[in-house]
Design a protein that fits this description.
The longest helix is centred in the N-terminal third of the chain and has 12 residues, at 5-16. A hairpin with a 5-residue loop joins strand 3 and strand 4. The chain has helices at 5-16, 24-33; strands spanning 35-39, 47-50, 66-75, 81-88, 94-101, 114-123. The chain contains two helices and six strands, in the order ααββββββ. It has a six-stranded antiparallel beta sheet with strand order 1-2-5-4-3-6, covered by helices on one side. 30% of the residues are buried. The radius of gyration is 14 Å and the shape is globular. By secondary structure, it is α+β, with helices and mostly antiparallel strands.
């Protein structure tokens, strides 16, 4: 699947809609207010992001740049996984997402069937800003 602004929006909306991710509205507001600063060209769907609008609430308490949330899925292909990692900057603002297939050893296919539920979900507990 070609990496693009539309692909970045798709993955952001996907994470925002997950019950495992408690800040869906915040990440969508950040995406609408900010801008994509880079699209990875290696075959993954990762992107970097910048939020310049001070009216947009940070996702988490400021605590340095970090991956603050991860989701990992098995896929319909027996030996394949899909991983998503949400990043924030030093101010707690959404700063991008890593989206890779098979630990980034293969390019993202055009269509990926994810098996529910995710086999791993982690993050936000030490960074939580008021819900």
């Amino acid at each position: 699947m070609k990496n693009s602004a539309a692909t970045a929006r798709k993955w952001t909306k996907f994470v925002a809609a997950r019950k495992e991710f408690p800040f869906g509205e915040k990440i969508l507001a950040a995406f609408d207010a900010g801008s994509i600063t880079g699209l990875c060209e290696c075959g993954c769907n990762s992107f970097s992001f910048y939020v310049d609008d001070l009216s947009v609430a940070p996702l988490v308490e400021p605590d340095g740049s970090a991956c603050v949330f991860t989701l990992d899925f098995r896929t319909a292909r027996v030996d394949a996984t899909l991983s998503l990692c949400v990043f924030t900057d030093a101010k707690g603002n959404f700063s991008g997402m890593d989206v890779d297939y098979c630990a980034n050893s293969l390019p993202m296919p055009e269509k990926v069937k994810l098996l529910e539920p995710p086999f791993h979900s982690c993050g936000l507990s030490s960074h939580v800003r008021g819900r």
